[in-house]
Amino acid sequence: xxxxxxxxxxxxxxxxxxxxxxxxxxxxxxxxxxxxRSPKNFEPLVEEINKAGGHAIGISADVADEExxxxxxxxxKGEGKGLAVSVVWKELVNRDGVENVQSVVExxxxxxxxxxxxxxxxxxxxxxxxxxxxxxxxxxSSEPPKYPPTLIFTGATxxxxxxxxxxxxxxxxxxxxxxAQSLGREFGPKGVHVGHAIIDGVIDIERTKSWQFEHDDAKxxxxxxxxxxxxxxxxxxxxxxxxxxxxxxxxxx
Length: 253
Prior knowledge:
Blueprint: E1 8-12, H1 18-27, E2 31-36, H2 43-51, E3 56-60, H3 66-79, H4 90-93, E4 109-112, H5 128-136, E5 150-156, H6 167-187, E6 193-199, E7 203-204, E8 220-221, H7 222-234, E9 243-246
Parallel strand pairs: 1-2, 1-4, 2-3, 4-5, 5-6, 6-9, 7-8
Helix pairs in contact: 1-7, 5-6
């Protein structure tokens, strides 16, 4: 697993499921930066990718905190010397009026895979903190990128359907989808591919191994999600897909 490009991909919200699978996939072509609030979420993966011949660094960061994200990108610039850093998220955390998006987005890809604080409670039992958690979840290169710079948001069923007792979770996911749509319309004409992925179903990870379903293959493969994200990233700018909707064949929708 030796990166074939000096460009960089940033994955925010790295855990044992989708984030890890996406990091492994993109690490086959790029150096990767893994962001998570807790180092225990990215340290084993950083070690795994580096041992396999790739290049990965992990940084503790809270995407809901502007200063934390500014600090994270300063660390990326410092630790990733010689790499082309994709600063897609500068537009999310610091609206300083960048006139030419190409001067900011010159790297490979960024994947926003942050959870939105899943809470299942009756509406009248929700606390203010439940709403805050749901809402708060909501990168110069010497080599031109082979594929358009890409920003992908991971969504869920709640991105388009607010289920009973999931109001705090749904409002965060709806907000993230609206943000992705707005960014797509703003930056798409400038050659930046913004996409949103609805992941509708249980992801097959260690935590869900014991969850039993009528069919053995009723869970979504995290590797299949990573493959879909890579496909989005490699689309030419003549055929950008803004949203994909993934689920197992037996999932009701």
